[in-house]
Design a protein that fits this description.
Elements: H1 2-11, H2 13-22, H3 29-52
């Protein structure tokens, strides 16, 4: 078993596998922009509900998140 591991290490297969496993594609400009717009809309809605009194003051951005 040790020989196999050593050969994989020297060949770079383990390193390549880890690179592939943890690689995250970069988001496109369109996706980032739509996400930003969605976040702004959500924030403004929460702010409006807090100002009108329909949302309790302690329920902020992360108040209703489940754990």
């Amino acid at each position: 078993m040790r020989r196999v591991k050593r050969s994989w290490l020297s060949s770079g297969k383990i390193l390549q596998a880890r690179k592939v496993m943890f690689f995250q594609k970069k988001k496109s400009k369109n996706l980032t922009k739509t996400g930003a717009v969605r976040g702004l809309k959500k924030a403004s809605k929460i702010q409006y509900l807090q100002k009108t009194g329909k949302l309790p003051p302690d329920m902020g951005r992360r108040g209703n998140r489940r754990r």
